[in-house]
Amino acid sequence: MFNDYGSVGGLGALVVFGAIFSIIFFLVAVAFYIFLSLALYKLAQRRGIEMAWLAWIPIAQMYIVGLMVKKVNVSTFEIPKLEIVLPVSMLVVMLLGAIPLLGTLIVFAFYALLLITLYNLYNQYAPEKAMTYTLLSILGVTIPFLLYGFRDKDPISVP
After folding, report:
1. For residue range 100-113, what is the model confidence (pLDDT) as tens digits?
2. Quick count: other Cβ atoms within 10 Å of Cβ 156?
3. Domain ranges in the chain?
């Protein structure tokens, strides 16, 4: 009359599946973090940035990227001192990103700024492929791999 699995067994299987999925997701996230940090560290070292080790600290990674790009132009508006703007923007996203609607707008604005910054960084190493790399960067997961590809190269142009 009653099966051996019952509703608790199904729930238990779901919990186990969720736990396994969470562990795998965590391990993949850590691997991506290490890969991105290593790529930024190598780029910073190659460029002679004094505190290249900051590439291993999540918010400070934006400082390293900002040092390499310096400034970006959005239409006729120039955003200078990216080494300050990017980390502060990331902090704002972390603090206000959960607010409905406003947080979503802040997250999109930061991601747009990051993509524009990455375009400028890619343009320093591979001008002919900068737009393609930027479009690939929309996916997010491609960024560490693209930056890692530049680790042994000198930039063609530096701002």
Report:
1. 999 999 999 999 99
2. 11
3. 6-148
